[in-house]
Amino acid sequence: MMGVGAVKQDVKAMLLAGFAGLVAGACSMAIGEFVSVYTQYDIEVSQMKRDEMRTNGAATENAQEAKKKKLQLPNPAQAAMASAIAFSTGAVVPLLGAAFISEHKVRLAVVVVLASVALVVFGGVGARLGRTSVMKSCARVLVGGWMAMAVTFGLTKLIGSRGLEM
């Protein structure tokens, strides 16, 4: 939304870009999470098999323990869905805010403010779930989000000001 907002004042173009970004981002996050978690799952299962071969499957306790460990491994599909839902929830906040504001510069400011609030909330939730420092997590997520918005806005503004027709 910031990229389109850098070169277009039309609310429809910004909302369309926001929706496209929401869908593309959610899909990208979900697929990335699925691949990452599935890879970790494969590694863990392979390690369990190696451990079992090393002990020659000697003890029934080891086999039962391996089954318990396998059940405790993260589910790639659940991780993908959680990632897609989290991304979509965060992306819909500035999208909804922009939908109700016709003035271009105000709309850009609202998008930045709402995205910032969403970033802080998600940083805090992530810190709570991970039992880490809330302040550090919120700051890290907020600064990363600001950097992404600034780069997107700046590069699109640069390309748009060079006369590239859209």
From TrEMBL:
Q: Does the keyword Iron apply?
A: yes
One GO MF annotation is: manganese ion transmembrane transporter activity
Keywords per UniProt:
Ion transport, Iron, Iron transport, Membrane, Transmembrane, Transmembrane helix, Transport, Vacuole
Q: Name one GO cellular component term.
A: vacuolar membrane
Membrane topology per the record? Multi-pass membrane protein
State where the protein is found: Vacuole membrane
Q: Which PANTHER family match?
A: FE(2+)/MN(2+) TRANSPORTER PCL1
* Function recorded in the entry: Vacuolar Fe(2+) uptake transporter.
User: What's the protein called, per UniProt?
Assistant: Vacuolar iron transporter
Species assigned in the record: Prunus yedoensis var. nudiflora
